[in-house]
Amino acid sequence: MVLPVLRHLSIEYVETLFCFCIHIPFTDQQRTSVWPVTNNMNEAEIPIDIAAGKLLDWLISRRIVDKNWHLHIRNIRNKISNAITDMPEHDELLQLLSGAHINYFHCLRIVDILKTTEADSKNVFGRYGSQRMKDWQEIVKMYEKDNLYLAEAAQILVRNINYEIPGIRKQIKHLEQLSEEADKKVEDLERSEKVVMAEYQNMCKQLGVTGTNLRQELVDKVFNDLPGMLTKVASSVAPLKKTVELYASFMNDAECLTLLKHVLAKGNTTVYEFVYGEPPLSIEEPPVKFVTEQQQEAADDGGAIDFGDDDGGAIDFGDGSGLDLDAPVELEVGDIDWGAADEGADPALAGANDGNVIDFNISLEESGIVVEEDGNLGGVAKGDEAFTVLDAQQYRDRFVNDLLELQSFLKMRLHQLGSADKAQVLAFAIMDNFKDHDEKTVASMLAEVEVVYAGVTDELLQHLLQIKHSPVYVDILTSNVKQKLTSIDKMKETALMKREKSVSFKQQSVELKPTQTKIVEQTKTLQGQIEKDISKRYKNRPVNLYGTNL
Protein backbone atom coordinates (compact mmCIF):
# COMPACT_ATOMS: atom_id res chain seq x y z
CA MET A 1 0.00 0.00 0.00
CA VAL A 2 2.97 2.38 0.63
CA LEU A 3 4.65 2.06 -2.76
CA PRO A 4 1.62 3.25 -4.80
CA VAL A 5 1.36 6.28 -2.55
CA LEU A 6 5.06 7.15 -2.86
CA ARG A 7 4.75 6.81 -6.61
CA HIS A 8 2.68 10.00 -6.71
CA LEU A 9 5.11 12.05 -4.57
CA SER A 10 8.04 14.03 -5.87
CA ILE A 11 11.56 12.79 -5.40
CA GLU A 12 12.48 15.86 -3.32
CA TYR A 13 9.59 15.27 -0.94
CA VAL A 14 10.45 11.58 -0.45
CA GLU A 15 14.08 12.48 0.21
CA THR A 16 12.97 15.05 2.77
CA LEU A 17 10.76 12.52 4.58
CA PHE A 18 13.66 10.05 4.64
CA CYS A 19 15.99 12.61 6.20
CA PHE A 20 13.35 13.46 8.77
CA CYS A 21 12.95 9.80 9.76
CA ILE A 22 16.66 9.13 10.25
CA HIS A 23 17.31 12.57 11.91
CA ILE A 24 19.59 13.94 9.17
CA PRO A 25 19.61 17.77 8.89
CA PHE A 26 17.67 19.13 5.93
CA THR A 27 19.34 20.77 2.99
CA ASP A 28 18.00 24.14 1.87
CA GLN A 29 16.32 22.54 -1.09
CA GLN A 30 14.61 19.96 1.14
CA ARG A 31 13.59 22.69 3.58
CA THR A 32 11.94 24.73 0.84
CA SER A 33 10.24 21.61 -0.58
CA VAL A 34 8.46 21.00 2.71
CA TRP A 35 8.15 24.60 3.87
CA PRO A 36 7.88 26.72 0.71
CA VAL A 37 8.94 30.32 0.92
CA THR A 38 6.10 32.68 1.39
CA ASN A 39 5.49 35.52 -0.99
CA ASN A 40 6.46 38.14 1.61
CA MET A 41 9.84 36.51 2.53
CA ASN A 42 12.86 36.40 0.29
CA GLU A 43 14.78 33.11 0.23
CA ALA A 44 18.05 34.93 1.02
CA GLU A 45 16.56 36.10 4.33
CA ILE A 46 15.93 32.59 5.68
CA PRO A 47 18.69 31.89 8.25
CA ILE A 48 20.64 28.65 8.45
CA ASP A 49 21.04 27.55 12.11
CA ILE A 50 23.80 25.04 12.79
CA ALA A 51 24.81 23.59 16.14
CA ALA A 52 28.46 24.49 16.60
CA GLY A 53 29.24 21.14 18.20
CA LYS A 54 27.85 19.28 15.16
CA LEU A 55 29.33 21.56 12.50
CA LEU A 56 31.73 18.97 11.07
CA ASP A 57 28.95 16.37 10.84
CA TRP A 58 26.77 18.94 9.16
CA LEU A 59 29.44 19.63 6.50
CA ILE A 60 29.98 15.92 5.84
CA SER A 61 26.23 15.23 5.62
CA ARG A 62 25.91 18.02 2.99
CA ARG A 63 28.86 16.52 1.11
CA ILE A 64 30.67 19.83 1.37
CA VAL A 65 33.71 17.99 2.75
CA ASP A 66 34.75 14.38 2.46
CA LYS A 67 34.47 12.14 5.49
CA ASN A 68 38.13 11.10 5.01
CA TRP A 69 39.43 14.66 4.88
CA HIS A 70 41.84 14.08 7.76
CA LEU A 71 43.89 11.70 5.59
CA HIS A 72 44.94 14.58 3.32
CA ILE A 73 45.52 17.27 5.93
CA ARG A 74 48.84 15.83 7.09
CA ASN A 75 50.59 16.79 3.85
CA ILE A 76 49.37 20.37 4.24
CA ARG A 77 50.67 20.56 7.81
CA ASN A 78 54.10 19.32 6.71
CA LYS A 79 54.14 21.89 3.90
CA ILE A 80 53.32 24.67 6.40
CA SER A 81 56.07 23.51 8.76
CA ASN A 82 58.63 23.78 5.99
CA ALA A 83 57.31 27.13 4.70
CA ILE A 84 57.46 28.98 8.03
CA THR A 85 61.21 28.36 8.30
CA ASP A 86 61.84 30.92 5.51
CA MET A 87 59.77 34.03 6.15
CA PRO A 88 60.56 37.76 5.70
CA GLU A 89 60.73 40.10 8.67
CA HIS A 90 57.30 41.56 9.22
CA ASP A 91 55.50 42.41 12.46
CA GLU A 92 52.14 40.99 11.47
CA LEU A 93 53.77 37.83 10.14
CA LEU A 94 55.51 37.32 13.46
CA GLN A 95 52.21 37.76 15.24
CA LEU A 96 50.45 35.28 12.97
CA LEU A 97 53.17 32.64 13.18
CA SER A 98 53.55 32.92 16.96
CA GLY A 99 49.83 32.68 17.62
CA ALA A 100 47.47 29.74 17.61
CA HIS A 101 47.15 26.87 15.15
CA ILE A 102 47.71 28.16 11.60
CA ASN A 103 44.66 27.51 9.41
CA TYR A 104 43.51 28.36 5.92
CA PHE A 105 42.42 31.89 6.79
CA HIS A 106 45.86 32.62 8.26
CA CYS A 107 47.42 31.38 5.03
CA LEU A 108 45.30 33.78 3.02
CA ARG A 109 46.51 36.65 5.18
CA ILE A 110 50.12 35.51 4.83
CA VAL A 111 49.76 35.51 1.03
CA ASP A 112 48.39 39.06 1.13
CA ILE A 113 51.36 40.18 3.22
CA LEU A 114 53.82 38.43 0.87
CA LYS A 115 52.33 40.33 -2.03
CA THR A 116 53.81 43.48 -0.50
CA THR A 117 57.08 42.01 0.76
CA GLU A 118 57.72 40.00 -2.43
CA ALA A 119 56.50 42.61 -4.91
CA ASP A 120 59.96 42.83 -6.50
CA SER A 121 59.71 39.21 -7.71
CA LYS A 122 56.47 39.80 -9.66
CA ASN A 123 56.88 39.48 -13.45
CA VAL A 124 54.90 41.01 -16.31
CA PHE A 125 52.48 38.12 -16.34
CA GLY A 126 51.45 38.76 -12.75
CA ARG A 127 53.26 35.78 -11.33
CA TYR A 128 55.77 35.80 -8.52
CA GLY A 129 59.21 34.34 -8.82
CA SER A 130 59.72 34.17 -5.04
CA GLN A 131 59.79 30.65 -3.65
CA ARG A 132 58.08 31.89 -0.49
CA MET A 133 55.09 33.09 -2.46
CA LYS A 134 54.96 29.88 -4.50
CA ASP A 135 55.01 27.73 -1.33
CA TRP A 136 52.18 29.58 0.37
CA GLN A 137 50.09 29.77 -2.81
CA GLU A 138 50.49 26.01 -3.17
CA ILE A 139 49.37 25.57 0.47
CA VAL A 140 46.26 27.64 -0.22
CA LYS A 141 45.42 25.52 -3.29
CA MET A 142 45.89 22.30 -1.30
CA TYR A 143 43.51 23.66 1.33
CA GLU A 144 40.87 24.63 -1.22
CA LYS A 145 40.90 21.20 -2.85
CA ASP A 146 37.80 19.29 -1.66
CA ASN A 147 37.19 22.11 0.86
CA LEU A 148 39.75 20.70 3.27
CA TYR A 149 40.19 24.10 4.89
CA LEU A 150 36.53 24.17 5.96
CA ALA A 151 36.77 20.75 7.59
CA GLU A 152 39.92 21.72 9.48
CA ALA A 153 38.44 25.04 10.58
CA ALA A 154 35.30 23.25 11.81
CA GLN A 155 37.46 20.82 13.77
CA ILE A 156 39.45 23.67 15.38
CA LEU A 157 36.22 25.48 16.27
CA VAL A 158 34.68 22.37 17.85
CA ARG A 159 37.89 21.61 19.77
CA ASN A 160 38.11 25.16 21.13
CA ILE A 161 34.44 25.21 22.13
CA ASN A 162 34.34 21.76 23.72
CA TYR A 163 37.82 21.43 25.24
CA GLU A 164 40.24 24.37 25.08
CA ILE A 165 38.07 27.19 26.44
CA PRO A 166 36.21 25.08 29.08
CA GLY A 167 39.56 23.59 30.15
CA ILE A 168 41.15 27.01 30.69
CA ARG A 169 38.06 28.29 32.50
CA LYS A 170 38.04 25.22 34.74
CA GLN A 171 41.74 25.63 35.47
CA ILE A 172 41.30 29.31 36.36
CA LYS A 173 38.37 28.48 38.63
CA HIS A 174 40.37 25.70 40.30
CA LEU A 175 43.32 28.01 40.92
CA GLU A 176 41.04 30.68 42.38
CA GLN A 177 39.45 28.04 44.61
CA LEU A 178 42.87 26.84 45.80
CA SER A 179 43.84 30.44 46.53
CA GLU A 180 40.68 31.00 48.56
CA GLU A 181 41.25 27.76 50.50
CA ALA A 182 44.84 28.79 51.24
CA ASP A 183 43.67 32.21 52.47
CA LYS A 184 41.04 30.54 54.64
CA LYS A 185 43.68 28.17 56.03
CA VAL A 186 45.89 31.17 56.86
CA GLU A 187 43.01 32.78 58.76
CA ASP A 188 42.36 29.55 60.67
CA LEU A 189 46.05 29.26 61.55
CA GLU A 190 46.17 32.85 62.74
CA ARG A 191 43.14 32.26 64.97
CA SER A 192 44.68 29.05 66.33
CA GLU A 193 47.95 30.88 66.89
CA LYS A 194 46.17 33.51 68.99
CA VAL A 195 44.41 30.79 71.00
CA VAL A 196 47.64 28.89 71.70
CA MET A 197 49.45 32.13 72.57
CA ALA A 198 46.67 32.97 75.02
CA GLU A 199 47.02 29.49 76.55
CA TYR A 200 50.78 30.00 76.85
CA GLN A 201 50.36 33.38 78.52
CA ASN A 202 47.71 31.93 80.83
CA MET A 203 50.05 29.09 81.83
CA CYS A 204 52.86 31.57 82.53
CA LYS A 205 50.43 33.67 84.56
CA GLN A 206 49.33 30.67 86.59
CA LEU A 207 52.95 29.72 87.22
CA GLY A 208 53.84 33.31 88.06
CA VAL A 209 56.69 33.52 85.52
CA THR A 210 57.43 35.81 82.59
CA GLY A 211 58.66 33.03 80.31
CA THR A 212 62.00 34.69 79.54
CA ASN A 213 63.97 31.93 81.28
CA LEU A 214 61.21 29.57 82.29
CA ARG A 215 63.25 26.83 83.93
CA GLN A 216 65.36 29.15 86.07
CA GLU A 217 62.31 31.16 87.10
CA LEU A 218 60.55 28.02 88.33
CA VAL A 219 63.64 26.92 90.30
CA ASP A 220 63.89 30.37 91.90
CA LYS A 221 60.22 30.25 92.93
CA VAL A 222 60.83 26.97 94.77
CA PHE A 223 63.36 28.64 97.07
CA ASN A 224 61.80 32.10 97.23
CA ASP A 225 58.02 31.67 97.10
CA LEU A 226 57.23 28.11 98.25
CA PRO A 227 57.94 28.64 102.00
CA GLY A 228 55.76 31.75 102.07
CA MET A 229 52.93 29.96 100.25
CA LEU A 230 52.96 27.10 102.78
CA THR A 231 53.01 29.60 105.66
CA LYS A 232 50.01 31.38 104.13
CA VAL A 233 48.09 28.10 103.93
CA ALA A 234 48.92 27.33 107.56
CA SER A 235 47.76 30.79 108.69
CA SER A 236 44.46 30.37 106.83
CA VAL A 237 43.61 27.45 109.12
CA ALA A 238 43.10 29.75 112.13
CA PRO A 239 39.38 30.50 111.42
CA LEU A 240 38.64 26.74 111.50
CA LYS A 241 39.03 26.42 115.28
CA LYS A 242 35.28 26.63 115.97
CA THR A 243 34.57 24.27 113.07
CA VAL A 244 37.01 21.66 114.36
CA GLU A 245 35.46 21.88 117.82
CA LEU A 246 32.01 21.36 116.32
CA TYR A 247 33.15 18.24 114.48
CA ALA A 248 34.98 16.91 117.56
CA SER A 249 31.84 17.35 119.67
CA PHE A 250 29.89 15.43 117.10
CA MET A 251 32.44 12.62 116.84
CA ASN A 252 33.12 12.64 120.59
CA ASP A 253 36.68 11.72 119.67
CA ALA A 254 39.65 13.84 120.69
CA GLU A 255 41.93 12.05 118.19
CA CYS A 256 40.03 13.07 115.04
CA LEU A 257 41.59 15.47 112.56
CA THR A 258 44.98 15.14 114.27
CA LEU A 259 47.05 16.84 111.57
CA LEU A 260 44.56 19.66 111.08
CA LYS A 261 44.50 20.25 114.84
CA HIS A 262 48.30 20.24 114.91
CA VAL A 263 48.55 22.91 112.19
CA LEU A 264 45.79 24.87 113.92
CA ALA A 265 47.67 24.78 117.21
CA LYS A 266 51.32 25.03 116.20
CA GLY A 267 51.36 26.03 112.55
CA ASN A 268 53.37 24.46 109.75
CA THR A 269 55.93 22.70 111.94
CA THR A 270 58.36 19.99 110.97
CA VAL A 271 57.31 16.39 110.67
CA TYR A 272 59.72 15.68 113.53
CA GLU A 273 57.75 17.89 115.90
CA PHE A 274 54.43 16.39 114.79
CA VAL A 275 55.67 12.83 115.33
CA TYR A 276 57.53 13.31 118.60
CA GLY A 277 55.67 16.29 120.01
CA GLU A 278 58.87 18.22 120.59
CA PRO A 279 60.72 20.74 118.41
CA PRO A 280 64.12 19.60 117.13
CA LEU A 281 67.36 21.19 118.22
CA SER A 282 68.44 21.55 114.58
CA ILE A 283 67.03 20.79 111.16
CA GLU A 284 69.03 19.13 108.41
CA GLU A 285 66.68 19.23 105.45
CA PRO A 286 67.85 17.17 102.46
CA PRO A 287 69.43 19.50 99.88
CA VAL A 288 67.58 20.11 96.63
CA LYS A 289 69.91 19.85 93.66
CA PHE A 290 68.91 21.22 90.26
CA VAL A 291 70.98 20.69 87.13
CA THR A 292 71.46 24.02 85.41
CA GLU A 293 71.11 24.37 81.66
CA GLN A 294 74.89 24.83 81.29
CA GLN A 295 75.55 21.64 83.27
CA GLN A 296 72.93 19.80 81.26
CA GLU A 297 74.54 20.87 77.98
CA ALA A 298 77.98 19.91 79.30
CA ALA A 299 76.66 16.50 80.33
CA ASP A 300 75.09 15.97 76.91
CA ASP A 301 78.38 16.90 75.18
CA GLY A 302 80.62 14.95 77.58
CA GLY A 303 80.66 11.72 75.63
CA ALA A 304 82.68 8.95 77.26
CA ILE A 305 83.25 8.85 81.01
CA ASP A 306 86.81 9.57 82.11
CA PHE A 307 87.72 7.43 85.11
CA GLY A 308 91.23 8.94 85.35
CA ASP A 309 92.96 5.58 84.93
CA ASP A 310 95.54 6.78 82.44
CA ASP A 311 98.33 5.79 84.86
CA GLY A 312 97.39 2.14 84.81
CA GLY A 313 95.83 0.07 87.54
CA ALA A 314 97.57 1.80 90.46
CA ILE A 315 95.50 3.75 92.98
CA ASP A 316 96.92 7.12 94.00
CA PHE A 317 96.33 7.78 97.70
CA GLY A 318 98.11 11.14 97.60
CA ASP A 319 101.28 9.96 99.37
CA GLY A 320 103.32 9.76 96.21
CA SER A 321 103.22 5.99 96.01
CA GLY A 322 100.77 4.02 93.96
CA LEU A 323 99.15 0.78 94.98
CA ASP A 324 99.52 -2.01 92.48
CA LEU A 325 96.44 -4.15 92.62
CA ASP A 326 98.23 -7.10 91.04
CA ALA A 327 101.14 -7.10 93.55
CA PRO A 328 101.03 -9.45 96.55
CA VAL A 329 100.00 -7.87 99.88
CA GLU A 330 102.62 -7.96 102.66
CA LEU A 331 101.47 -7.42 106.23
CA GLU A 332 103.78 -6.37 109.10
CA VAL A 333 103.04 -8.35 112.19
CA GLY A 334 103.99 -6.70 115.52
CA ASP A 335 103.19 -7.13 119.17
CA ILE A 336 99.97 -5.59 120.42
CA ASP A 337 100.24 -3.63 123.64
CA TRP A 338 97.06 -4.30 125.61
CA GLY A 339 98.09 -1.91 128.42
CA ALA A 340 98.24 -4.69 131.06
CA ALA A 341 101.38 -5.79 132.97
CA ASP A 342 102.71 -9.23 132.30
CA GLU A 343 102.81 -11.79 135.04
CA GLY A 344 106.07 -11.83 136.85
CA ALA A 345 106.88 -8.33 135.75
CA ASP A 346 108.85 -5.93 137.88
CA PRO A 347 106.63 -4.37 140.65
CA ALA A 348 108.25 -1.03 140.06
CA LEU A 349 107.24 -1.20 136.42
CA ALA A 350 103.72 -2.15 137.42
CA GLY A 351 103.55 0.79 139.71
CA ALA A 352 104.54 3.03 136.91
CA ASN A 353 101.39 2.03 135.04
CA ASP A 354 99.02 3.07 137.83
CA GLY A 355 98.46 6.37 136.06
CA ASN A 356 96.34 4.62 133.41
CA VAL A 357 93.84 3.20 135.90
CA ILE A 358 90.28 4.66 135.63
CA ASP A 359 88.92 6.25 138.77
CA PHE A 360 85.19 5.39 138.99
CA ASN A 361 84.59 7.55 142.06
CA ILE A 362 84.65 10.90 140.17
CA SER A 363 81.33 12.82 139.96
CA LEU A 364 79.50 13.79 136.70
CA GLU A 365 79.97 17.50 137.43
CA GLU A 366 83.73 17.04 137.80
CA SER A 367 83.98 14.92 134.65
CA GLY A 368 82.28 17.62 132.46
CA ILE A 369 79.76 15.18 130.89
CA VAL A 370 76.27 16.62 130.19
CA VAL A 371 73.37 14.18 130.34
CA GLU A 372 70.35 15.13 128.15
CA GLU A 373 66.78 14.75 129.32
CA ASP A 374 64.65 11.79 128.38
CA GLY A 375 62.76 11.82 125.03
CA ASN A 376 63.73 13.56 121.75
CA LEU A 377 64.12 17.07 123.14
CA GLY A 378 67.13 18.64 121.49
CA GLY A 379 67.29 16.02 118.70
CA VAL A 380 68.20 16.64 115.05
CA ALA A 381 65.50 16.46 112.37
CA LYS A 382 66.91 14.64 109.34
CA GLY A 383 65.56 13.25 106.10
CA ASP A 384 61.80 13.41 105.64
CA GLU A 385 61.34 14.46 109.25
CA ALA A 386 63.08 17.75 108.42
CA PHE A 387 60.30 18.78 106.02
CA THR A 388 57.25 20.67 107.26
CA VAL A 389 53.95 18.82 107.49
CA LEU A 390 52.56 20.76 104.52
CA ASP A 391 55.74 20.15 102.55
CA ALA A 392 56.01 16.39 103.02
CA GLN A 393 53.78 14.54 100.55
CA GLN A 394 52.47 11.94 103.02
CA TYR A 395 51.48 14.42 105.72
CA ARG A 396 50.12 16.95 103.25
CA ASP A 397 47.77 14.25 101.95
CA ARG A 398 46.62 13.60 105.52
CA PHE A 399 46.01 17.32 105.94
CA VAL A 400 43.91 17.39 102.75
CA ASN A 401 41.98 14.31 103.89
CA ASP A 402 41.18 16.02 107.16
CA LEU A 403 39.86 19.02 105.24
CA LEU A 404 37.72 16.80 103.01
CA GLU A 405 36.38 14.95 106.02
CA LEU A 406 35.43 18.22 107.70
CA GLN A 407 33.96 19.54 104.44
CA SER A 408 31.77 16.47 103.98
CA PHE A 409 30.51 16.75 107.54
CA LEU A 410 29.55 20.39 107.09
CA LYS A 411 27.80 19.73 103.79
CA MET A 412 25.74 16.94 105.28
CA ARG A 413 24.92 19.04 108.34
CA LEU A 414 23.93 21.98 106.17
CA HIS A 415 21.64 19.74 104.13
CA GLN A 416 20.00 18.33 107.23
CA LEU A 417 19.49 21.75 108.81
CA GLY A 418 17.74 22.91 105.68
CA SER A 419 15.58 19.79 105.47
CA ALA A 420 12.04 19.65 106.78
CA ASP A 421 12.46 16.02 107.84
CA LYS A 422 12.62 16.11 111.63
CA ALA A 423 13.93 12.56 111.79
CA GLN A 424 17.23 13.68 110.27
CA VAL A 425 17.51 16.54 112.75
CA LEU A 426 17.25 14.12 115.65
CA ALA A 427 20.46 12.43 114.51
CA PHE A 428 22.31 15.66 115.41
CA ALA A 429 20.68 16.18 118.79
CA ILE A 430 24.10 15.80 120.39
CA MET A 431 25.05 19.23 119.01
CA ASP A 432 22.01 21.08 120.27
CA ASN A 433 23.99 22.55 123.12
CA PHE A 434 26.61 24.07 120.75
CA LYS A 435 26.20 27.84 120.61
CA ASP A 436 25.44 29.66 117.35
CA HIS A 437 24.85 26.41 115.57
CA ASP A 438 22.42 27.21 112.79
CA GLU A 439 22.24 26.97 109.02
CA LYS A 440 23.92 30.32 108.40
CA THR A 441 26.78 29.52 110.75
CA VAL A 442 27.41 26.14 109.15
CA ALA A 443 27.44 27.73 105.69
CA SER A 444 30.06 30.23 106.90
CA MET A 445 32.15 27.37 108.32
CA LEU A 446 31.93 25.48 105.04
CA ALA A 447 33.14 28.54 103.12
CA GLU A 448 36.15 28.86 105.45
CA VAL A 449 37.06 25.20 104.94
CA GLU A 450 36.81 25.58 101.18
CA VAL A 451 39.18 28.56 101.32
CA VAL A 452 41.82 26.45 103.06
CA TYR A 453 41.24 23.54 100.69
CA ALA A 454 41.61 25.83 97.65
CA GLY A 455 44.87 27.19 99.05
CA VAL A 456 46.47 23.81 99.74
CA THR A 457 45.40 22.42 96.35
CA ASP A 458 46.51 25.51 94.41
CA GLU A 459 47.95 24.54 91.02
CA LEU A 460 51.10 26.64 91.40
CA LEU A 461 51.72 25.24 94.87
CA GLN A 462 51.39 21.69 93.55
CA HIS A 463 53.86 22.40 90.73
CA LEU A 464 56.44 23.92 93.08
CA LEU A 465 56.16 21.00 95.52
CA GLN A 466 56.61 18.54 92.64
CA ILE A 467 59.68 20.44 91.46
CA LYS A 468 61.20 20.47 94.96
CA HIS A 469 60.76 16.77 95.62
CA SER A 470 61.45 15.65 92.03
CA PRO A 471 63.94 17.93 90.24
CA VAL A 472 63.20 16.13 86.96
CA TYR A 473 59.68 17.54 87.09
CA VAL A 474 60.94 21.04 86.29
CA ASP A 475 62.16 19.80 82.91
CA ILE A 476 58.82 18.09 82.24
CA LEU A 477 56.87 21.21 83.16
CA THR A 478 59.18 23.46 81.14
CA SER A 479 58.85 21.16 78.13
CA ASN A 480 55.04 21.22 78.35
CA VAL A 481 54.97 25.00 78.48
CA LYS A 482 57.53 25.46 75.70
CA GLN A 483 55.56 23.04 73.54
CA LYS A 484 53.03 25.84 73.12
CA LEU A 485 55.74 28.07 71.65
CA THR A 486 56.84 25.25 69.36
CA SER A 487 53.26 24.86 68.12
CA ILE A 488 53.05 28.60 67.49
CA ASP A 489 56.29 28.51 65.44
CA LYS A 490 54.96 25.62 63.35
CA MET A 491 51.70 27.49 62.76
CA LYS A 492 53.62 30.56 61.62
CA GLU A 493 55.69 28.48 59.19
CA THR A 494 52.59 26.76 57.82
CA ALA A 495 50.75 30.09 57.49
CA LEU A 496 53.71 31.59 55.62
CA MET A 497 53.81 28.61 53.25
CA LYS A 498 50.04 28.79 52.67
CA ARG A 499 50.26 32.54 52.06
CA GLU A 500 52.98 31.99 49.43
CA LYS A 501 50.89 29.27 47.77
CA SER A 502 47.88 31.59 47.69
CA VAL A 503 49.91 34.29 45.96
CA SER A 504 51.26 31.70 43.50
CA PHE A 505 47.76 30.41 42.68
CA LYS A 506 46.48 33.94 42.14
CA GLN A 507 49.43 34.73 39.87
CA GLN A 508 48.83 31.61 37.77
CA SER A 509 45.15 32.49 37.50
CA VAL A 510 45.97 36.03 36.36
CA GLU A 511 48.46 34.72 33.80
CA LEU A 512 45.87 32.34 32.32
CA LYS A 513 43.20 34.99 31.81
CA PRO A 514 44.96 36.72 28.84
CA THR A 515 45.37 33.28 27.23
CA GLN A 516 41.69 32.61 27.72
CA THR A 517 40.76 35.99 26.24
CA LYS A 518 43.02 35.41 23.26
CA ILE A 519 41.60 31.94 22.49
CA VAL A 520 38.03 33.26 22.84
CA GLU A 521 38.77 36.10 20.40
CA GLN A 522 40.42 33.74 17.91
CA THR A 523 37.48 31.33 18.21
CA LYS A 524 35.00 34.15 17.58
CA THR A 525 37.00 35.26 14.54
CA LEU A 526 37.12 31.71 13.21
CA GLN A 527 33.39 31.33 13.81
CA GLY A 528 32.68 34.47 11.78
CA GLN A 529 34.93 33.27 8.94
CA ILE A 530 33.19 29.87 8.81
CA GLU A 531 29.72 31.46 8.88
CA LYS A 532 30.74 33.80 6.05
CA ASP A 533 32.13 30.95 3.95
CA ILE A 534 29.02 28.80 4.38
CA SER A 535 26.79 31.79 3.62
CA LYS A 536 28.49 32.25 0.20
CA ARG A 537 27.59 28.66 -0.65
CA TYR A 538 23.90 29.29 0.03
CA LYS A 539 23.21 32.56 -1.78
CA ASN A 540 24.50 34.72 1.10
CA ARG A 541 21.84 33.49 3.50
CA PRO A 542 22.63 34.32 7.14
CA VAL A 543 24.33 31.47 8.98
CA ASN A 544 24.15 31.15 12.77
CA LEU A 545 26.44 28.80 14.68
CA TYR A 546 24.73 28.46 18.05
CA GLY A 547 25.86 26.72 21.23
CA THR A 548 29.35 28.25 21.31
CA ASN A 549 28.92 29.85 24.81
CA LEU A 550 31.69 32.36 24.11
Structure in words:
- By secondary structure, the chain is mainly alpha-helical.
- The chain contains 22 helices and six strands.
- The chain has helices at residues 2-7, 11-21, 28-34, 55-61, 70-83, 91-97, 104-117, 131-144, 148-207, 214-224, 226-235, 241-251, 258-266, 271-276, 293-300, 347-352, 364-367, 393-417, 422-426, 439-456, 459-469, 472-537, and strands spanning 48-51, 282-284, 315-316, 322-323, 380-382, 543-546.
- Strands 1-6 form a two-stranded parallel sheet.
- A hairpin with a 5-residue loop joins strand 3 and strand 4.
- Helix 2 (11-21) packs across helix 3 (28-34).
- The chain is rod-shaped.
Radius of gyration: 55 Å
Order of helices and strands: HHHEHHHHHHHHHHHEHEEHHEHHHHHE
Secondary-structure class: mainly alpha
> Uncertain spans, ≥5 residues at pLDDT below 50?
1-14, 32-39, 302-308, 310-315, 340-355, 368-377
Trace the largest sheet across and list its strands: 1-6
End-to-end Cα distance: 51 Å
Q: How much β-strand is present in the residues?
A: under 5%
